[in-house]
Fold each of these.
Amino acid sequence: MALIVKKFGGSSVSNPERIINVAKRIIEERKNNDKIVVVVSAMGDTTDELINLATQIDKDPYKYTREMDMLLSTGEQISISLLTMAFKTLGQKAVSLTGYLAGIKTNGIHTKGKILDINPQRVLNELENGNIVIVAGFQGCDQLGDPVTLGRGGSDTSAVALAGALHADTCEIYTDVDGIYSADPRIVKNAHKMKEITYCEMLEMARLGSGVMQPRSVEVGQALHIPIHVRSTFTNKPGTIIREEYTMEDKNFVIRGVSHDDKVAKIAVLGVPNNPGIAYSIFSALAEKNIDVDMIVQSIRNVEKNVTDMVFTVALGDLSIAKKVVDKTASDLNAIGVLIEKDVAKVSIVGVGMLGNPGIAARMFKALATGGVNIDVISTSEISISCLIKSSELKEAVNIIHDEFFPQN
Ligand code: ASP
Ligand code: MG
């Protein structure tokens, strides 16, 4: 008898019919009385609709972070109760649990919470009583018991963390795509599905914009050694397994995939004094507001005047808060000005194969040059290279880079 955690995303439970189908499929595929925990997201676009409601009260509702969590956590509460009813109509014992009831403890950072600990006792008791246990994704509670959500896409993290706390045999993520692809198949016709990918490559791809998994969930899977099977809700085909090491595929690849992200904005702080502590002032002010910064470049602008430009990117969703913070810091630092560009996008290649394999960056830049795509900012990690380009050229860029590394016969 195995213990399996299965997570179903919003599109998998977007209407009553789909909810009933999820319950049927789980019952049909259950073997040997396996113990099953199901984590669900809110139905369809519910979370977006709730955010939209809040913006009708206040243009910037995220300043009321606790109330946003109180609001957003209701989305998952709808889907757990409906799915549980669906199981019951099919004669299957089942019980729904909110994040709080499932023992998911988070820090107190509303709307961007992190799971600190899970006390799985209630879940284990319910399983012992023969229930399928349906847990609300995306939410936990802080020390006070207040609801805290885990950032957009956070149900993935709920599922993987629960799998870890329950010592589950596997964690399956059911979604509207049938696995992880070498590039977004909606953009690149020849993108191929991978049978396996390592945690560190998946984490890098997720961080760089491949939307299938929340990056934090991959991090949690890696820390807790939980293999994650990403597969389709709508077919029975095997998907992609995210795990520590490759077991079956040819390891002779240089890169694993091309990721892209058009939800980024570039911020340039121009003419800041080139003194110790300047980067610290800018980035600590942003960190205080929990804003992630990427692609940081500092250049010497004017040696005689001893000033420099500081360029970096942030997620588009963080731009309005980031701009306020940076405008203030820039004026405190006597900077010449702050430039914001929104029509930018990031295209990246990812793969452990680039370690100790020179010439990979050159191949990426050559492909972009051949396609006439101008590179604005470049950044690298051990297993990735990213270029900031114009968003209007993104589709073309992803395709030419993919063709360069995965040529069609
Ligand atoms: N419902 C939340 C969202 O839309 C969490 C999730 O789907 O994972 O972001
Ligand atoms: Mg998702």
Note: Residues 268 and 339 are 5 Å apart (CA to CA).
Amino acid sequence: MHTSSSHQATLIDGKAYAAALHQRIRQDVIDFHELYGVTPGLAVVLVGNDPASEIYVRNKALQTHHVGMRSFMHMLPETTSESELLDLIKQLNADPAIHGILVQLPLPSGIEPHRIINTILPEKDVDGLGEVNVGRLASNRPSIIPCTPLGCLLLLRDQLGDMTGQHAVVIGCSHLVGKPLSLLLLAEGCTVSIAHIHTRNIEALAKQADILVSATGCHGLVRGTWIKPGATVIDVGITRLKTPDGTSRIVGDVAFDEAVHVAGRITPVPGGVGPMTIACLLENTLTAARLQMKESSICT
Ligand code: GUN
């Protein structure tokens, strides 16, 4: 019934959802300040001068200001050593004005991301990528959840409500998105299949999905024929394509023009999952600040 070309899936408007989330966070920041006399602060660290990362980092700082939080940017040269970066993280860990620390990935070769991420105090790890937060998520006791998976989960809950018994297929198994999102969907009661580069016949697996998530960065991977009619499709991919006229455009993993005639609901790229990532980073900064306030009141 959803396969005719006249059928149009419902577009999941991540931009509107993120705007509403920003509005709520702005009020929460005011309430937090009234309660504790403290403004939540987020430190973002960028090493090197990758142009895409620079845009992401500046956008994060801008949005942090917009919701009334304090933003601390650290732009370090490509030549920064691992021990210099570790020293900065330790300094940020000890700074009471900073409640969240995000180190933009990827890091230049020569710096071990694992060591850097695990030096961030778990209660300031707003990316939720350190071993303590990953372990808490895997143990069904999450405290800080990685931003993009959290954004996907909020959109899915809003669209579908109870997901118990749904078959979710997640394509991509990265630490940043695929693995944590699979755990979150499992906790929602979904039957979860994780597909990756070695998975055989991904198309047949994808076609079984009630909820299909693609997070590979491989644009156009998911064709219309991969989608079960009426399924909910979440496209996490972001690829910048150069157009012949010298401009560029952002596309996702899903062949949108095909998928929109088959899926029941679908996130567009841009304007789907992307805006949710920053909104969830801000939400995580508030969560981190709350965790630290609770801890300091336990200590005193
Ligand atoms: N680079 C691309 N996405 C992310 C993210 O969510 N967090 C960090 N730290 N770096 C990224």
Note: The chain has two domains: 38-122, 146-276.
